[in-house]
Amino acid sequence: MDRREIQNAIQQMKTEEAIKDILQSKYWSNKKIFEVNGVYFPEKRPSGEPATGNHMGWSPNSKQYKKYMSNLLNILKGFHQFAEENNVLYSLNGGTLMGYYWNKNIIPWDDDIDIWLQEKDYYKIRDKLWDEGESNNKNLENATGWYKKNSRIIKLGNKKYEIIPNNQNRISEGTHLTKILPLNMPKNRKNIGGLDIGMCRTCQDKSLKEGWMKDRGCFIPENPKEKDFPIVDFSGIKTRAVIRKLGEPLLNEVYGPKWKIPCHPIMKTKININEYL
After folding, report:
1. Which residues share a beta bridge with 234?
2. 3-state SS class at 45
3. Minimal CB count within 10 Å: which of 19, 96, 204, 242?
4. How many percent of the chain have pLDDT more than 70?
5. C-alpha to C-alpha distance for 90 and 79, rounded to whole angstroms
6. Whole-number Å distance between alpha carbons of 216 and 95
7. What's the rounded Cα separation, in Å, for the pair 47 and 246?
8. Degrees (nearest 5) of the Cα angle 129, 130, 136?
9. Are residues 26 and 18 in contact, defined by beta-carbon separation less than 8 angstroms?
10. Is 57 left (phi over 0), alpha (psi -120 to 50) or beta?
11. How is residue 50 annotated by DSSP?
12. E strand residue ranges, the chain
């Protein structure tokens, strides 16, 4: 075993101990807890609300949620094919990357999929999808910050979806994120999930920053190398994910090292999780 393998083995032991102590803690021991592929989440938050993600508000065990996430994985599958055809490297990001590092699957309560591209590739892909798309006259109600007048119908693989860029300009000011959504999204959602395509910008000082949350770093350089963004198996499909050596520091920055414990964030608040990291 090399040093990194030893460190990983030690962390795995600590992770298993953390999960055991969380499940046996005074608060969670008498609550309904679900386990999917070694990842744990409660039926409800302490507030009594379902332990959902931040977008759709569906129970992770509902048929509606499972069908929706299956649709998102099909979008990612189609996007992967499109990116390969256009010689563009990208990576899973955020909670989606976290799920890949945990067990190569979607986090059981997550309700969107996050990917990143380098700035020049972001514009290349976004503009090509937009230009090849069709006009869309439907209205998406109550989608905070997303405007239907900027949407079009696109085709990935043999299926049609909707694309909505929140900022169609090529300027350094403002935020840049593009969503690809299933058609016929439910109405009256407070927010919307979908496949979120983000941008990694190379700044003048050569640092890498998100095009969405500008104070956060990212990991896709101006000229990414394929060996750092290999094709991987994820929730039954092929996609690309940054190697852990490059991706883990960013997850530490955004979520803190407690992300390594594979359970719902709310479950980590009832014990001193730092003892296990």
Report:
1. 237
2. coil
3. 204
4. 86
5. 10
6. 15
7. 36
8. 120
9. no
10. left
11. B
12. 33-36, 39-42, 90-92, 112-118, 134-135, 152-156, 159-165, 177-181, 194-202, 208-210, 231-234, 237-240
How many CB atoms within 10 Å of residue 114?
Answer: 20
Kindly give the pairing relationship between strand 39-42 and strand 90-92.
Answer: unpaired
Which pairing describes strands 134-135 and 177-181: parallel, antiparallel, or unpaired? unpaired
CA separation for the pair 266, 148 (Å, rounded): 34
DSSP structural state of residue 147: -
- Please check the confidence at residue 142 and state whether its pLDDT lies above 90: no
Residue 157 corresponds to which tokens in the numbers above?
Answer: 């693989």
Residues 6+ apart with CB under 8 A from 7: none
Summarize pLDDT for 37-83 with one digit per residue, the tens.
Answer: 999 999 888 887 777 766 667 777 788 888 889 999 999 999 999 99
CA distances from 65 to 247, 252, 263 (A): 28, 28, 19
Q: What is the DSSP string of 168-224?
A: ----SSS--EEEEE-SSPPSS-SS--EEEEEEEEEPTTS-EEESSSTTSB----SS-
Q: Is the pTM of this model over 0.70?
A: yes
Task: Return phi, psi of residue 11, to 5°.
Answer: -65, -35
Beta strand pairing status for 194-202 and 177-181?
Answer: antiparallel
